[in-house]
Model the fold of this input.
Amino acid sequence: MGAFDVLVVSQKCDQCGIVTDFRYQFKYGTPWQKQYVLGDRVDWEGNPNRWNGQPMPGLIAVDAEREACPNCQCEYEFSIVYIDDGMFIGAGRNGGRFNFGNDDYALPIGQYARLTVEDTK
Done:
């Protein structure tokens, strides 16, 4: 995956049912092994040549991969990190909702997805 950042979100595991801190790896902004939590803002500091994507206003979905559950080791691919006006607001499964191309790290998703985002907190 190369350089990436991590968003840590406390969530209930789908498999074992235990609430734990899940780590979502993603490449958006200026990735350099930074760790974020909900409410943090995306880092766009540094050389624009190192940016992955571009700052986007509004609600966006960022391609991500959730690390295994630390309790039961279950994994799933194709996750999403949600960002609203530059602030991390949630994360969860993609479930085929968004199709990221080879070079697409983030997609604007607009108002229709706000109810879905509420389910990821």
About this structure: The mean pLDDT is 85.
